[in-house]
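lol ok so funny story. i was supposed to be doing the assay writeup but got distracted and ended up predicting the structure for this chain instead. priorities right. anyway since i did it might as well share w the group, maybe its usefull for someone
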Amino acid sequence: MARSADGETAPRSRGRRRSGEADARAQILEAASKEFLEKGYDSTSLRGIARRAEVDPALVHHYFNDKAELFAASVSSPMRPDLIVRQVLSGPRDQIGVNLVTVVLTTMESGKSAERIISIIRTALGHDFAATMLRQFITREVLKKIAVDLGAEDGELRAGAAASQIVGLFMVRYGVRVEPLASAPIEEVARRIGPVIQFHLTGYPALLDTDGPARE
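and the output, tada:
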């Protein structure tokens, strides 16, 4: 509380309170960035972030629903894993791979903060911690959830195999920028890479007949 000119106590302005909340959120994001970079995605916990930020764990939950959302915010990532999973699973099951590549690349290239996550990909080329964090995030929050929804018993293995394709695609398209893949249209990339991811997630390529040779 502050005192006015006549000596009476006046309530603190709402602007000050909002500023304090913004500071707390920024403090949590800074702590999260350091935890993710030092420990990787899997080994980072919301409680550990709260300890580092010197705030109550409940305050972390107040601003962020879960670790995936906090990770995306801490790297200013345009990727919302929950929305990606929902969008991919809403389409035909035999087009999961194509849809996944389309959604992820479209998100990467249309988001306002896409440059930030692309910089993480480039960092991952020379630093194991960044590559591990990126791989764990994509595997745990996107691909494993899709594999489990599809009813795969070996969902974790399938997610890891699919992640190798997605992360590899990121590295080649945005990291080392190998042409013509780096500048190929998203639809073309999805048409070529999607069936491979489909195979990893469901056990069969979308472009193959189970009773015959590959179709054109």
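The CA atoms of residues 3 and 9 lie 4 Å apart. The longest helix spans residues 14-43.
back to the writeup now i swear
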